[in-house]
Amino acid sequence: MIDGQKRFITNAPTANLFVVFARTRPADADGPGIAVFLVPADAAGVEVGAKDAKMGQEGAWTADVNFTGVRVPNSALVGGSEDVGYRAAMTSLARGRVHIAALAVGSAQRALDESVAYAAAATQGGQPIGSFQLVQAMIADQQTGVMAGRALVRDAAAKWVSGEDRRIAPSAAKLFCTEMAGNVADLAVQIHGGTGYMREVPVERIYREVRLLRLYEGTSEIQRLIIGGGLVKAAQRQH
Hints:
By secondary structure, this protein is an alpha+beta fold. 51% of the residues lie in helices and 16% in strands.
């Protein structure tokens, strides 16, 4: 029987099946005590809340999902045991972080492209604003961030595929690229000036959309804990 609530579930308003993580026992030497179940959306006791009104990413609907006395059969257990499904899910979560990092790079590239195009066309005092050194400096910072992020995503993806690193590299890529995308989007609005604050220009939307990237699939703070903790533990194992 499953009881509990989970917030901000992507596609919850349209889903017909939920992948549910539920604690089945206290954590012990055998594992975390968290199992993974497949639960139909129309199962008795499952209730999906109203669609969330978010700052951005309106194309990805989210909502709360409540479980009240939801009974599931043994066949709903993913992996056939309590710990197998959880470990597999954690591995998939790390892969998702590489994906989010790539999304961040793509969004940052669009913000950079919009910034360069605007700087080349918009004028101030009869000159393109792109001729001003401070505007060029902001564009340079954008370009540097995008290039570094793209290289990091490719490196992390290669390490994931080879199996060399499926923990620290994905977290490092997500941390750097999502923070970078936020900075690049902020610079894009700054380059556009007041125009960048208007709903009709792409950089306004990008600014709102990329903010979420630092929150889901593990916040930036969680990524720092994974990276720092992982490196320290690896060093301790060598002594």
